[in-house]
Amino acid sequence: THTHTHTHTHKNKQKTMSLSTNCQSKLRLHGAAANSTPHSLLILTLPHQNSKITVYASSGIINLISSSSSSSPPPHVTKTLRTKTTKNANNESLDRVITSLCTISSRGIGCAFSDGTITTWWYNTKEDEWKEQVIVSTSQDDEMLYSITDLDGILVQDEDNKDTIVIVSGAANGVSLHTALKSENEDTSAETKVFSTLPASTVKLHPLSSSSNEILILMGTALPRFNKIGVYTLLPPSKDVKFHGYLLGHQDWITSFDILPLNDGEFKVASGSKDAKIRLWNIHAPISAGDTTTKVINNVEEGLLNEDTDEGLLDAFIEEDEDDSDDEEQHDAARLQIISSKSGEEEEEEEMMIVRNITLEALLIGHEETITSVSWRPFSSTNNTPTLMSSSMDRTILLWTSQKTQQDSEEEEEDKGVWMPMTRLGAAGGILGGSIGSSLLGFVDAAFLSECEIVGHGYGGSLHFFHSSSKEEEEGNDENKESDEEEKKGNDEMVEHWDVQSNITGHFRGVVDLDWEVLNGDYLLTVGYDQTCRLWAQVPTSSSSAEKTTWHEVGRPQVHGYDLTSITCIGYGASSSSSERKTGGEKKHRFVSGADEKLLRVFDAPSSTLRLLRSLRNEASAKDEEKEDRVERAYIPSLGLSNKAEAKEQMEEVEEIGGGGRELAEHHGKTQEEKEKEKEGNASTTSNEVSVEQQILEKNGMTNISPENDDDNILVKQTTKLPNERDLGVTSLWPEVGKLYGHYYEISCLTCSSPSSTDNDAVLVASACKARDVEHASIRLWNVNTNSCVEVLTVCV
Predict the structure, then answer these.
(1) pTM for this one?
(2) What is the C-alpha separation between 65 and 579, in angstroms, rounded?
(3) pLDDT higher than threshold 60 for residue 481
(4) Tens of pLDDT, residues 592-602
(5) Nearest CA among 432, 435, 460 for reference residue 445
(6) Is the distance from CB of 510 to CB of 532 less than 8 angstroms?
(7) How far apart are the first and last CA of the chain?
(8) Cross-strand partners of 341
(9) Closest CA to 556 of 713, 430, 656
(10) Which helix (DSSP H) or strand (DSSP E) does residue 355 occupy?
(11) CA torsion angle 629 615 522 755 (round to 10)
């Protein structure tokens, strides 16, 4: 919330300045979608806090979410971080956005931009604020930098016990190493060194030893074919990166890494790729170089894989990886060896060298589209089982567990190392052929907020929160669960039930117009270039929370095929008489929107949205609203642009309740006159007064439910729940009740009058469009009730 005051005299200016000191503003809503790129989401634990915070990038801004998904108030943005760096002069025509985020030793945030800029953020506990340190900056004299695809960082101490930032970034021109001293007060120029010229799509850093500063560096290539994982090590303060070889097997771009440290210096590495496969690698504990007898089958030199590489040699390597033979010698063979010295010196005798063997443990096949992220589940005091989470563009998040942790008998020891997807999360559905705002096109990232909490990052910018609780396996499936649980064998086993929590949503392209509900300001409507209209309202929190309400998106009235450019709310209220409505007045809860098309569209709120808003305000249904003719909800036909409001089509979207769900939907889709006739017909055949809803429920064997009015039936209970991302794009649409034709070009702006400013309480809507000449540069006044143009205002030349 911002307050702008304009004064014209020195006296008034002094008076304004004295009053402005008493004004305070507080951020109540920051509705911004996450960037639709991987590596835009991370989890961070501040040193002075026990709870973790969720961090995500939105355009060029970093957003911080402090609330847990299972706590109250629901998760929402509490702080934003904006960079002080400027756009590169050579990239002025490009949108400068954040392409990747990373944690730096769990103490800071690393941030990479599309123009090649890299900055870090550090939290100052004393001042309770975040400070930015620029690592790589741009200026007019600099050469054009490549957009950074991924980065990762770590904090080490140099010989003088000063904190040194080590960052590795990947781009189309290769992989670079950046080192700089940590400083919260001033920017320091980083030393940059390119150590690989292959295009990289992802990188990962991890300490290789607790006794030294040796760092493991993994790099995933983005080549047309035969992609590979480059393995490097770095021993600060030296800037020399040592190459050890490549891990082959992935057919397409490598998209993500994650490393799980185990006991005795062992690691598990997971790598995901666009080939829809995940590979698990084991980095074994170090042994003396003279004691190793392990066979190495895939230690390829750095310069071997290039344009002139013999493809037959590479095909042989990949066929070995894909082969399902049970040859134990091949299975236990090392795919690569990391050789380093015990003392850290470059030249050592063989007795002073140590070797870490890397072997392939498993090939995980379960996703149908690109693997966008992999993440290991954090260990807890009650669970030390390695569990891997993977997200994919097939709209699912899978949790993988090795079978050897499920079976303890010696007879089944031969099945060890077999990894299976035990849990599937996600939301199928959406509008076929619709825009991004109406369908979850896939997950581009996912992270563990805690052992029992997951944050999923949808392609449309929405953040999905899942919370689990272990319960004994029960028969049947809960219809209110959105997650698809995989059944486990045995009645005595524990099953995780994942519940969907409130989502964080927002426009993923520019917001161009907004308007408040005209009577009481109960909600806010916004439109943007992402082709969606979104409804924001206050959501009550628990009584123990400091904030009584928080703002969230609770509806998506319009999902269009053109960029929306303008909106104005109408609906000041009218008499229920249809004859009076023709002469003036408006139904409540209506709006008119304009887009990059030549017509205006009029929308009317459905009953489901009004019930949800009333439940959030804890209000009863108003009598005048009960008499209004409203449909239950709308839908968009496949490849269509207009929201329809027909009961037959809406029945397909309603979740069936026994055998009466469709009949309830059909009943609520009828007009008020049809409902009255239906009630009169039923009254003539029944001796007692029974509502239509009750008859439908009793006919389908649901006599234990006795609704007395519209607010008590099952359909109402379903629509009073805060909608998730899928519901927002499908079931919260408003029906389109009219179109206004007349403009020759695309609509540019809209506004409306108040009832008192016109005759007969008729609300007029004014609209303007783009124009090439004076003739078309006009303003049109519309009467929405009659769908007619009242006047055309043009300039007299």
Answers:
(1) 0.81
(2) 52
(3) no
(4) 999 999 999 99
(5) 460
(6) no
(7) 42
(8) 353
(9) 430
(10) strand 353-365
(11) 30
